[in-house]
Hints:
Layout: E1 2-4, E2 7-9, H1 14-23, H2 33-43, H3 48-55, H4 59-67, H5 76-89, H6 94-105, H7 115-128, H8 133-157, E3 168-169, E4 183-184, E5 187-190, E6 207-216, E7 222-230, H9 236-244, E8 247-249, E9 251-253, E10 256-258, E11 260-270
Antiparallel strand pairs: 1-2, 3-4, 4-9, 5-8, 6-7, 6-11, 9-10
Amino acid sequence: MTSKDGTAEIYDMEDARARRRASQLPGADYSDAGAHLAAVREASGLTIAEAAAKTHIQQHHLEAIETLDSAALPVRPYAIGFVKVYAMSLGLDAPAVVDRFKEDMGFSTAPKVDVKKFEERKATEAQSGDLSLLAVAAIIAFFIWCAWQIALIDGREHTGVGAELGEVVRSPASLSDPALTEVVEARIIERIEPIFPRGCLDDAAPVETVMVAFNITAGGRVAGERIAVTSNSCFDASALNAVRRWRFEPRTVDGAARPLHDQKARFSFDRPQ
């Protein structure tokens, strides 16, 4: 309570308390970063329009962040910046939210270079002098042998490529030791087929084809969907809208759900007779 010109002004602290409680909602309880942001916003008592006014980010961009709609988001740097501002406005740990958003969207992050280790290694190599020709030849032969061994293992491991989703995949060593890594691939549990857009009928070939690339989040939702190949862009929206509604049992590694990137689905649109 403060006093101005002899009058008392009382501030309602309930909104501040609500925002503080909302910011403490654990992100692990939600399938992805977008769902976490949406839950915190709603728990804070903010509408999407109020959040847009508060952050100065357009409302449709906030909606795209909450639903992981890559088609409605700007280019990657702006999208990541929007997520950071949005998380900060809700009182969340912005770097952690941004990192999870990158993982959900399949954004790859370039590894940081340890300059100190690089300089130390360079100084050590300079002091040790050049390797002899025989040593270089031995190193090259070793790498060739390693590559050959990896190729042999890879060939054995991937025999029977094209198995159904949901099959347990083990490395050759794990066949004799069940305690090693066990991977269960993602399995689709709800598949929505696209609808032939009537507005595309006049310019459609007898068969139009669209291939959609997408990621699967650890929660089994589709994210980062985009057009990989299309024979007619008029059909792109229908294909994307169908894929966004797919649901999966996510890929698991030793029982823990993991995101899966760069999946593809091909759709054929047969022109009605």
